[in-house]
Amino acid sequence: MERTSSIRRKTLARQHKGEVMIAGEQLRLRLHDGKLIKDRRYHLRTYPNCFVAQELIDWLVSHKETPDRATAVCLLQHLMDHDIIHHVCDKRPVIKDAKLLYRFRKDDGTFPFNTEVKVFIWGQRLYGHITGILIGDKNSILKLREEHGVAYQRSFPGCQLIDWLLQNGEAESRRRGLELCRALQEHGIIQHVAKKHNFFDSGLLYQFCINFRRRRRLSELLNEGEQDVDEGVAVWTQEDNHPESPFVLRKSGPQGGNGAFLSGERKCALFCAFSTFLRTFTCEELLAPGSPFIKKVLTVMGDVLGWGFVVRGQAPCYVQAVDPGSPAAAAGVKVNTHSKYLKERH
């Protein structure tokens, strides 16, 4: 029992490390997009791709990522402790709320690609390939399945995951596939649906326990490490919430090169009628003079991750889900809001 608890704690620590890496990368992309990361001169020397700690703390507070400057400093220190950022000269192991230069290790090639990180990156790529197939597609291994009378969303039998690895050239043998899947479980990327079994090449059901696509709020990082070992950290949105879904509005990822450098302002305009409907309405009914619906145009300013809402239906469509803390939520988009049209523009 003590050994099992020790393994769970180790897995949870690795899982938290993964969450820190994801949140750090999302922050890095946003800072590049906002031009807070750039080449800077200090004492006649140019330091490429760095940021000023004081400026970043200002940004974190103004964007409500942290409630105050002290929390922002704790957050940045947390990123430093996990080798996400560092002082440009590696002379300061502690973050200071001052005009000091720091840099993301991914921007200068000093990120430590040890075995743990390599497993995490491989798991992230695997997650992208597997979840990129539409739920319900015959090629998708993620389905609603039952084990011992309990239904589990997005679950897959262990043997089917190994089959998938073999079919897609990720493993050269079932034995190697089993080793890779057990490494994913040990690093908190997949788990048995009831958290009762190790990974086996069998019909036992497993799930991804990290949602790599979810936008992280930075304040989560200071609390996740305190979770009980029996708690998971995965937070899922609706099953349609992935890039291949026709119901998702999301920015396309950069093509090649450094994914940090995205330019241009992208907006999504929605002509919305606000109400909770008991039946289906047509566009003509929604827009008819004297209709009892509140009509409003909302402009969502997309960020590096997208707009943060899911839409369904036709003529008119409706908002199925809104990510908390997303640009859509900030613009006032609500679940079940009906829209005449959605228009993306630069």
From TrEMBL:
It comes from the Eukaryota. GO terms for cellular component: plasma membrane. Residues 23-106, 136-210 form the DEP domain. One of its GO terms (biological process) is regulation of signaling. This is DEP domain-containing protein. Pfam families: DEP. InterPro entries: DEP_dom, mTOR-Rac_regulators, PDZ_sf, WH-like_DNA-bd_sf, WH_DNA-bd_sf. PANTHER family: DEP DOMAIN PROTEIN (PTHR22829), DEP DOMAIN-CONTAINING MTOR-INTERACTING PROTEIN (PTHR22829:SF7). Gene3D superfamilies: 2.30.42.10, Winged helix-like DNA-binding domain superfamily/Winged helix DNA-binding domain. GO terms for molecular function: GTPase activator activity; guanyl-nucleotide exchange factor activity.
